[in-house]
Amino acid sequence: MNVQWLETFELGVPEIDGDHRVIVSLMKAIEASLAAGHDKQAIPIIDRLIAFAADHFRREEALLAAWKYPELTVHCQYHRGLLETIDHIKQACLEKKGSESFKHCCDEMMRYIIDDVVQGDMHIKSHLQHSNLVITE
Fold it and tell me: Nearest CA to 79 among 60, 65, 94?
């Protein structure tokens, strides 16, 4: 999958941007483990990624509530759906036989997490900029 951090992912909120960088870093660690043929060693990193994503979603939702984000309920539901999907994909990954199948499955799981950063949070970025809650240059 070759996950890379891009500055366009930044919302201008250090807490959220920092979390997103940690998520990308964990994904890179999973990719490195899989590339080295260490599928079993990737599993604890996958677990850390999922747990961190869930914690990130809680932190982000608290900030959104404080900012009175108008789409908060929808965004929270979006997060719940992502976590459920990610968990289902993880379970499917663990049942895969063969390194290539496991890697493909992990790539799919990471795409769902990236979806939050790229698609889901871009609506937040627009709201923050429109509300003058972040400085844009």
Answer: 60
Per-residue burial over 98-121, b if 16 or more Cβ lie within 10 Å, else e, is eeeebbebbbebbebbbebbeebb
CA distance 120 to 134: 18
* Ordered alpha helix ranges (H), the chain: 14-35, 39-66, 72-95, 99-115, 121-130
Between CA 22 and CA 27 the distance in angstroms is 9
For tokens 């950063």, what's the residue? Answer: 117
- Can you give the pTM of this predicted structure? 0.87
Is the pLDDT at 29 greater than 90, yes or no? Answer: yes
Give the residue from 11, 17, 93 showing the smallest Cα distance to 50.
Answer: 93
